[in-house]
Please model this.
Amino acid sequence: MKALNFLIFFSAVILVYGSVNYYLYVRGAQSLPGDSRVKTIYTIVVIFLVISFLAGRILERYAVSFVSDALIWIGSFWLAAMVYFLLISLSIDILRAIDHFLPFIDRIFRQPLILKKYLFPTVIVLVILVVIGGHWNAAHPHIKKLDIQIAKESPIDSLRIVAASDIHLGTIVGRDRFCKYVEMINALNPDIILLPGDIVDEDLAPVIRQNLGQALTQLQATYGVFGITGNHEYIGGAERAARYLQDHSVTMLRDASVLIDSAFYVVGREDLSKTRFTGQKRKTLSELIARVDTQLPVILLDHQPFNLDQSVRNGIDLQLSGHTHNGQLWPFNYITNAIYEVSFGYKQKENSHFYVSCGVGTWGPPVRTSSRPEIVVLSVKFNKRNNP
Model:
């Protein structure tokens, strides 16, 4: 049954992807001169761009190499370019449809043939500039700071949390980029480091090849580093990924809780994808906190920010999530805003605080146009318990 569901899902994705690219190919071909050699070159280039990402991912599962890396990088950039070529092409077609019934193009542009001649290269240059700008943005995360007051007593009066969601370690977020993240995180002098899922980008092979585990061990915090699974750990194999992370100084909380310094709890949920990939359900939040002393502050890590009211009902003081990337590419942030109660940012519901990070890494395109990547610093204040 799982295999059938995957086949249906994969077929639907390929159908949509193929249809979009065929539409873009046809619209681009219509803008080219009639020279058959030009169109032949154009066809070869488009086919290469379209298949490169999928080909690279398939090769990566059998043998990670320069070839698989190059195909993934090229295909990843094409995914971003494809989105903006599609938006522009649809916009042009809508304007043409309007012009068919209410002519206005010839009145605005006195020489429409010149417009047609320069439209295709102009669109290409525009998309390239957007992708380059989005890539620069993706490579330069900023530090997001947030102050939170939790009205519970604790033996400590404050806690400095550094959270880095959706790192997506792998081919795109490789050693150089991740080492930069490690330096940024350590420079913040965290009491605790929390990684709310999608630490690994599907296949573990590029992570092992680049020895990114060694960089993980360089993360430094008073109480240590804690992580949870995200949907991408399950896509690539959650058991293997969790074991690798655990072996490299990340304490993986898989439907588990831990009391830290007798001062606060960290609770980590398995990702929602567990059921789809294993057929097994994750524990309910009520089951998870059954043995937790909720008189102390409770911090929850849950990768996908669904059903926030469950956290409120179960006395969670602070929930950290990711997953959404805030859409990663504009205008997909409008879609994530419609799906999630909180797609990006902070919200308080009764006594529960929520922060959904847009993440620090990227999936697919190494491009961000909907928001800037972030490492989150949460300065949490508690009511200091006066010990007798």
In short: The chain has 14 helices and twelve strands. Residues 143-384 form a domain with the Purple Acid Phosphatase; chain A, domain 2 fold (CATH 3.60.21.10). The chain has a mean pLDDT of 92. The first strand starts at residue 142 and ends at 154.
